[in-house]
Amino acid sequence: MYFRVADIDKAFGSHKALDGVGFAVGERDFVCLLGPSGCGKTTLLRIIAGLLPPDRGTITLGDRDITHLPARDRGFGIVFQSYSLFPNMTVAENIGYGMKIRGAAAGDIANRRDALLRLVQLPDVAGKYPAQLSGGQQQRVALARALAVDPALLLLDEPLSALDARVREQMRAEIHQVQRQLGIPTIMVTHDQEEALTLADTIICMNQGRIEQAGSPRELYLTPKTRFVAGFVGASNLLPTAWLREAMPSLLRGRPPGPDEAYEACIRPEDIQLTPTGEATVRDIVFLGSLVRLDVEWRGRRLSVEQHRSSAIRHGDAVTVKVADGRCIWVTT
Amino acid sequence: MTSASLRGHLLVAIPVLGLLLFFGYPLVVIGLRSFDGDQGVTLANYARLWTDPGIPRAAWHSLLMGGATTALAVLAGLVIATTLHRSRVPGKALIRGTLLLPMLAPSMMQGLGLIFLLGRNGLIHRLTGVPTDIYGFTGLLFANTCYALPLAVIVISASLTRTDQRYYDAAESMGASAWRQFVDITLPQATFGLLSAAFIVFTVTITDFGNAIVVGGDYRVLATEIYDQVQGQQDFGMGATIGLVLLLPTVLSAYLERMASRRGSSGSEHALPFEPQRHRGRDVALSIATVTILLPLVATIATVVFASFARLWPYHLDLTLAHYRTDLTDGYTPIVTSLKVSIVVALLGTLLLFMLAMGVRRLPAMLARAVYVLATLPAAVPGMVVGIAYVLAFNSGPLSPWLYGGLSILVLSNFYHYHAQGFLTVATGLRAVPTSLEDAAACLGGGMLHEVRDVVLPFAAPALVSVFFFLFTQSMVTLSAVIFLVTPELGMASVSVMQLDENGFVSQAAAYSTCIVAVVATALFLMRLLANRIGIHYQQRRQQHVA
Predict the structure, then answer these.
(1) A308: Cβ–Cβ under 8 A, 6 or more apart, which residues?
(2) With 0-12 CB in 10 A as exposed, 13-18 as middle and 19+ as buried, what is B254?
(3) Does the CB of B443 have a partner CB in chain A at under 8 Å?
């Protein structure tokens, strides 16, 4: 693989921020580090960038060990949540900064800068200062600045979190397009599972300093391995073995052997089918546009169910609950 | 160890070495000296603290004076800070300028002014016939309050500027009156600022020497006791002992101040700056209060300036330049010496403090904390103690050939006397540098030089400029540390004023003070001009890039 981190440990005092983390990135891959705040994903990104030394572990780029290489010599591009443009420099100076440090000729810098500004669709802002731009524009400039040095790896630290919802979606599409177009290997940190699902080739789902599961968005959604992943990536109904044995015993057939507490069933809301009349009751319906989400009470539990908006089921209806074939996944608790 | 981290450690090593050699070492020497007797180690000096008739009383006076000044200065400071940050009173620049006055003047100038106005032969007595006597508690309280007020205003103001406008918007929409908003929002936000101000004012007051010797009269405080022991009776052991006693309250106060400022430092990064609304009653009341507080500040200084030109104050008020023909043997050379010393202190100090504050950020947490404590420790050490410690440590011993009687000892004592305040200002300034910007510069391939030039300086420059001015003005007007270090051949301006006053040449002391104020003000003005020039130069470069 093109870029690889292995066995990274990092502790802050007695708190273990990272515990034996390792993964690899292919030459054109978009990898997302996904997890809740405090899971260690930003620490990991800072270690990858060279801004923080790991306690243990190695980082390799190609066949080169870069574990102890300082950030300035790694040649990575990085974009922060807070934009972090130099406020005392114009957009042009910001983008040209890395090239200037590397001693590039003024003409080359100007050409590259103009090309990048076109790429991020901001051709007319070169002479402005960051404070004169909107958040979304600043983040585009930050992206252009990171790309200007032909980075061996592009690092994105929650680049969309500070933006408004609409701008965020637009930016998300743009990052996707730029990354595909330039084919730069990219690692993005995010706590937004939707962002990770739409952008990533590979999602690394992290929790409490460890990797819970790594795989394509499809794998993580369809076959989560742990309760944490099932709950964090997409919505799910997590049902204990004992309850399922009473309610839907047929689903136990696919269950790996082990004590009741060892595994739970993960059933996605769209994989539950409802038919009129039965012992379950619809307690609430939320309209989501193309879908409706129903809150169904059955045998002392609440189940979340998604149906097409044309569904005829109404608030208070009695219904029967059925799970689509093969759509019950067993996850470790 | 990589070369970058080696450079980082060197950055800290040089200033820390300086601190250990020119602050730690003299302090150890003075500590040892207090146990020094005719027959080896003894506690005799400490025993004398209790038996001496004057010292317990002076200690009590110092505490009482410190407490009273603190109460008065913090209250007045709160009023002025409120005027500056919570009102639409016009002329705020004028208020700020007036507050600068006591900082430009030697510390005994307020005392002199008071004596000219309210002394036994003061102007008020002369005009009204009412018997006045300002010497003693009241006069000293007054002079000290004037002297400490600017500090109080600065600290309290800092805590008021952090408040988010949205708190006031919320209170306003819930129907809270202006007074309620002050009590419920402004005061709680300022609590720790008020505490910090109180501790700082207390420390400054009990360690101040200039006012005590000019207007204290028979009201003797610890600072005057120390001076008498050392200068009058040449008893350095006893001077050192009293100095160490003076350390107790100042160390405690500095410690509490740090606790208070730590608790108070929770400003929101995205705070909306406060914009006071129109409120006539509030603004009129605050205007009157502010003018009442600031009037004496202006009056005392103005009186000194006026008196310096009067033929025989307060009997013949016709103008003359006679008092500017000073009777001092070395004339005005001490002012030149002070200028030289102050410029070197400001240049060297700003550089060393910047190195230290930069370097300390890259140290491991434990080490950084230790350096931080060492760098801020001088705040707790009174200038007179620094002065005595320097005499004891450097008048003899291995370093004395380089230091004794030279400019360098004056430079060093002044710099390390004000080290803590300078360091805190620079460290706070560096905190304004966003870490992610530094990260961005590092990731783009920038080295330490790039980082300093493109990221740190644009944000920290204001703090560095203000530290430069702070060190310069303090060195120009300070008396307490240098009083023991000047020699007949090498005098400092503030010491000359004291000598003139002690020898009864009051009008000449006024003239000399006036010269100091004029020189400091002119120097500040020129430097400001230069600083603006540089600022404009940068701006023009920016605009050229735009075009």
Answers:
(1) A290, A291, A292
(2) buried
(3) yes
Q: Which residues contact B28 (CB under 8 A, 6 or more apart)?
A: none
Q: Name the DSSP letter for residue A249.
A: G
Note the pLDDT tens digit of each residue in B296-351: 889 999 999 999 998 888 888 888 888 888 777 788 899 999 999 999 999 999 99
Q: What are phi and psi of B317, to 5 degrees?
A: -95, 10
Give me the percent of chain B exceeding a pLDDT of 90.
27
Specify the amino acid at residue B219: Y
Half-sphere exposure in the Cβ direction for B454 (13 Å, CA): 25
B540 — pLDDT class (breaks 50, 70, 90): very low
Asked if residues B142 and B296 have their Cβ atoms less than 8 Å apart, the reply is yes
Strands (DSSP E) found in chain A? 3-12, 15-25, 30-34, 56-61, 64-65, 77-79, 154-157, 186-190, 202-207, 210-215, 237-240, 263-267, 272-287, 291-298, 301-308, 318-323, 329-332
Read off the pLDDT of each residue in A202-224 and give the average, rounded to a whole number. Answer: 95
B452 min Cα distance to partner chain A (Å) = 13
Q: Chain A contact for B97, CB < 8 A?
A: no
Q: Tell whether A58 is within 8 A of chain B (Cβ).
A: no
Instruction: Kindly list the residues from chain A whose CB atom is less than 8 angstroms away from the CB atom of residue B442.
Output: 50-51, 70-72
Q: Cα separation of A59 and B138, whole Å?
A: 71
Handedness of CA B342, B344, B347, B349 (dihedral sign): negative
The helix (H) or strand (E) run that includes residue B102 is helix B92-104
Confirm whether pTM is higher than 0.90: no
3-state SS assignment for residue B371: helix
Whether residue B442 and residue A71 make contact (CB cut-off 8 A), yes or no, is: yes
Torsion of CA B51, B55, B61, B63, to 10 degrees: -90
Long-range contacts made by residues B168-177, C-beta under 8 angstroms, separation at least 24? B168/B274, B172/B277
B499 phi, psi to nearest 5 deg: -60, -45
Task: Indicate yes or no: CB of B440 within 8 angstroms of CB of A70.
Answer: no
For residue B436, the chain A residues in CB contact (below 8 A) are 80-82, 84
Q: State the alpha helices, DSSP H only, in chain A.
A: 41-49, 91-101, 106-119, 135-147, 165-182, 193-199, 217-222, 227-232, 241-247
Å from B532 to nearest chain A CA?
Answer: 17
Cα dihedral across residues A171, A152, A29, A267: positive or negative: negative
Chosen for mutation from B433, B438, B443 (greatest number of chain A CBs closer than 10 Å) is: B443
Does residue A87 have a cis bond before it (omega within 30 degrees)?
Answer: no
**Using CA atoms, how far apart are residues A228 and A205, in angstroms rounded to an integer?**
9
pLDDT tens figures, B353-365: 999 998 888 788 8
| Residues B388, B391, B393: CA angle, nearest 5 degrees | 105
Which SS3 state, helix, strand or coil, does residue B23 take?
Answer: helix
Q: Which of B58-72, B137-151, B172-186, B356-370 has the lowest mean pLDDT?
A: B172-186
Distance from CA of A204 to the nearest CA of B (A): 23
Tokens in use for A121? 């669709």
Query: What does the alpha-carbon distance between residue A53 and residue A17 come to, in Å, rounded to a whole number?
Result: 13
Please tell me the distance from the alpha carbon of residue B413 to that of residue B153, in angstroms, as a whole number: 27
Residue type, B371: V
pLDDT of amino acid A32: 96
Per residue in A66-124, pLDDT (tens digit) is 999 888 888 898 898 888 888 888 999 999 988 888 888 999 999 999 999 999 989 89
Higher pLDDT, A243 or B542: A243
